[in-house]
């Protein structure tokens, strides 16, 4: 689980940084990630 | 399917409502100041995630209701929609509150839809992960026990994603 999680986190951060460096405002993607992280962070609560 | 559709409907409904309310809230606040308000709001919330501060967060302290099992399809839709709003069950993290502040002050309609859909997808991951697990009881226990240890990780991801939105 920790390896998969680390790989996923690295992929998301790399995508964010890559899109940012490519000077293409990735606002839609960033909002999606912001929502995704918030939603997934609640997974231990049900 | 009903549960996932409900999640999406709930997430998008709340994000849309936040944009509507935000359109009023933003009026007296100059545009350059709004990202700063989000950044300032993020400080105590992220400190709470890292265990540096204990914040009483608004939450709905309820468990999974019985109607989910009594009404097979529409019960799942209704429960999904309630979970998708983020206003059902406990909220052990302040990250959704931070996203709500960001959507309220910064998001356009498409951005709010993306945030709402992302929130729904994030909530769906647990259900999909449990369905795919070989041992669902172990998976459920892992979510309950492991997630509190990942709060710093989620806070870091949130900072990275918000930084892309806030830094011009």
Overall description:
Chain A is 76% helix and 0% strand. Chain A has helices at 2-21, 27-41. By secondary structure, chain A is mainly alpha-helical. Chain B is mainly α. Chain B is built from 8 helices and no strands. Chain B is globular. At the A-B interface, helix 1 and helix 2 of A face helix 5, helix 6, helix 7 and helix 8 of B.
Largest sheet report of chain A? none
Total beta strands of chain B: 0
Q: What is the H/E order of chain A? A: HH
Structural class of chain B: mainly alpha
* Helix percentage of chain B: over 70%
Distance between the termini of chain A: 20 Å
Q: Enumerate how many helices of chain B there are, as a single number.
A: 8
Highlighted features:
heterodimer, A: 46 residues, mainly alpha, 0% strand, flat, B: 168 residues, 8 helices, globular
What does the secondary structure layout of this molecule look like, with pairings?
The complex is a heterodimer of chains A (46) and B (168).
Chain A: H1 2-21, H2 27-41
Chain B: H1 2-25, H2 34-49, H3 67-70, H4 72-84, H5 95-106, H6 109-132, H7 136-146, H8 151-166
Helix pairs in contact in B: 1-4, 1-5, 1-6, 2-5, 2-8, 6-7
Concise account of the structure shown:
Chain A is built from two helices and no strands.
